[in-house]
Every structure is written in structure tokens, then in C-alpha cells.
Amino acid sequence: MKTLSSFNLKNKTVLLRTDLNSNVVNGRVYLSERIRESVITIKELKKKKARVVVMAHQGRPSKSDFVSLRQHAKHLNKFVKVKFIEDITGKRARSAIKNLRAGEVLLLENIRFEKNEFHPEKGKNNKLIKRLAPMFDFYVNDAFSVCHRKQTSIVSFPKYLPGCAGRLLERELKALNKIKLKNTLYVLGGAKPEDDIKLLKGNKVLACGLFGQICLIAKGKKLGAQNKYLFNNGFVDDKLIKRLKKKLQNVRTPLDFAVKVNGKRKELKLNEFPVKYEIFDIGKDTIKNYVLEIKKAKSIYMKGPAGFSSDEKFSKGTVEILKAIAKNKGFSLIGGGHLSDTIKKYKINKKKFGHVSLSGGALLRYIAGEKLPGLEVLRGIVKLKGTKIMEN
Ligand code: 3PG
Fold first, then answer.
1. Is the entire prediction scored with pTM above 0.85?
2. Is the beta carbon of 145 within 6 A of some atom in ligand 1?
3. Ligand 1 in contact with 327 (CB < 6 A)?
4. 178-359 — its CATH code?
């Protein structure tokens, strides 16, 4: 795969797809490792005197973290000068792109605000491609964590523009090429259970986060308010429960949970549920039990937090599990934006892990042996602006 070193980008207009998707609480975007690390490629492109346009997403339509990239721009500006425009394909965005000077960087609005992001099948008739592709000389993909999505900014632009990997994507691929996960203990958490289910293939699994609660529901446990929360917010439906039921043989589930009562952490044993409180973390018995398993493991892969890790009262499960993994001498792979952020926030020594990836779902699919569309298209034969065919 080609990299930034393969091209002379001086004075070229470069479309950079990066992943700035971060934790959002009550509308506030937290400065994440993804934002911090994205600066590496941006700075290099700036230094190479490219005209850089950054494209990124935040959240998913209808979710509470589906917000503008204005705050991300503010965070980025702590490290590198970036202009932000609240537009994607309109006149304002196109004139800002045209007027960029060598070494300048422009961040467009949340790409998922544009419906065409979800319609790469429209090909050349996709508004994003029609209006924007002709304005660029190069496409750089630095978003390994989004490479599992068949979305326009990931799979279509590199069909019409010569493309290459950014430094973060390159770093992830180099690290993943070296890993060997055999007899691995999977610690699966986070809020995307449809991803976790892909790894239930006989390995031993410690379930936590929303995934742990959903596994319990699939085992027939009633959690009360948390059942409602999970179903009403689209984290789970009857179909997923039915699929999960058949795959739980090697899955260990939480023994207790921490709920929020008057803003405080309160721990409850599983037999005290159902309750009227929502769940925010695993409890101390679960932590103890999981840490014992982690001590015995030969290699470990952890994906997603064990609880609501951005709130200090509910970060205990995630932090204790990460610390236990850091102590294990076997190979460990950590995946997902939340875990990278927790490692940084709680000053856990990153060097103690085999590899800490910024990617959650994409990494999980990679491990499950699936092909990632974003990588396939970068590796493949790329159509140049609809006419010439070029080996990439
Ligand atoms: C992630 O957070 O894993 C990536 O940004 C992809 O987000 P998505 O699951 O909403 O596509």
C-alpha cells in the first residue's frame, strides 16, 4: 500500500479522511487520543506544503453524540492551525477549498450530516463525489477505525483519486501484521454489541460494558431500567438476543453492577435486580473475578470499556481491567477510542501493552478475519477521475 512517502504533495490539494470520533457528554466533545493522534499526519502534510482538507465524522444520525465538528476544530487548534467551515459540499466549502494556500488546513463539517455519505453505491452521481472529487489531487486515508464502513468518504473517493495511507493507518497495519492471537482471552465491552457477537466463536470471553448486560438479558436476566434503556436506544433488539442466546457457552457475564443513585455510585449484586436504576459500571465482585482470569491468560484482546469510563465514578471497572492486562506478561491488544483515552487519562503505561489501537469495530472485524472495504479499495486498482485506470 502506498504511503505519504510515495508522493510529492507540494502544492497539491489533498483530501484527508481521518477519525475524530470522540466521547461526547451533554454536548461537550472531549479531547480524545484520536484527535491528538490525527495531528501527526496533518502536520506532515502541512510540512510538505500540501493544501489539506480534513473530512471526518462524529457519532451516528439520531444518537446524542451526533454533533458538529466545531469543538473538534478547537481541540485540533491546540496542536496545529486548522480552519473550520460549517459546510461540506456547498458554495462556502468549495470556495474555501479553492482558496486554500500551500500548508493550510481546512476541516469540513461532520461528513455524516451529508446523507450521500451513506450512499457510495451512487458512484459518480453521489453529490460528495460529483462536487468534491474534481477539486482534489490526492486522497489520504488515515482512519483505520472507519475502514470497515462502506461509506463514501472511505470507499468512493479512492476510486476517483490516487490514494494512499496516512501515518496512523500505516502504523496500525504494521502493528497488526505482527500480532499473533492464539488461545486468546477476549474482554469484550463497549456499546456496539453487534460487533462483539462476531467474536463468539468458542474462545473464552469476559463480557462487560453494554455487551455484558445484553448477554445477561440473553440468558434471561431482567435488569429493570437498564433493559428499557438498551431496547429504547437501539443497542439491542429481539433479533440480536435470539442470535446471542446460541453463542453464550464460553461467555462469562457480570456478577454485580454499579448504578447511579442521587449522582453517586452504588453497587448491587445481580440477585438484587431488576431495579429502577440504570447501570454505569461492573461491580467489585465482577472486577475481582475477571482480574483472576486475566492473570491466567496467555494473550488478551480487550475491546471497549467495561462501563461509563469517562465519568470517574464509573471508570473503576475499565481501569482495573486495563491495569490487570498491563501486568500480564503475554501479548495484549487493546482496541477502541475509549480505552486509548482511559489509558492516557489514568496514566497507565502504554508500553506494557502489545499494541494500543485507536480502532474498535474495524479492529474487531480484522481479527475476526473479515475484509475491510476501506483497505481493499486502497490496495486495489483505482479509477482516476472516471477515465484512466491506475495501479495503486
Ligand atoms: C468508531 O468509533 O469505532 C469509529 O469512529 C467508527 O464509528 P461507527 O461505528 O459509528 O461507524
1. yes
2. yes
3. no
4. 3.40.50.1260
Q: Is the CB of 193 under 6 A from ligand 1?
A: no
Q: What is the pLDDT of residues 230-277, one digit of tens each?
A: 999 989 999 999 999 999 999 999 999 999 999 999 999 999 999 999
Residue 337 Cβ inside 6 Å of ligand 1? The answer reads yes
Q: What is the mean pLDDT of residues 188-216?
A: 93
- Cβ neighbours around 389 below 10 Å, total: 9
In a mutational test of the pocket of ligand 1, which residue from 145, 153, 303, 364 has the highest number of ligand atoms less than 8 Å from its CB? 145
Distances (CA, A) of 111 to 38, 56, 86, 87, 226: 16, 6, 11, 9, 32
Per mean pLDDT, which range of 103-117, 148-162, 293-307, 378-392 is the poorest?
A: 378-392
Q: What is the pLDDT of residues 351-376, one digit of tens each?
A: 999 999 999 999 999 988 899 999 99
For residue 149, give the ligand 1 atom closest to its CA: 11
Superfamily of chain region 4-169+372-378 = Phosphoglycerate kinase, N-terminal domain (3.40.50.1260)
Return the CA Rg of the chain. Answer: 22
* List of E strands, 247-310: 251-252, 256-261, 264-269, 279-282, 299-303
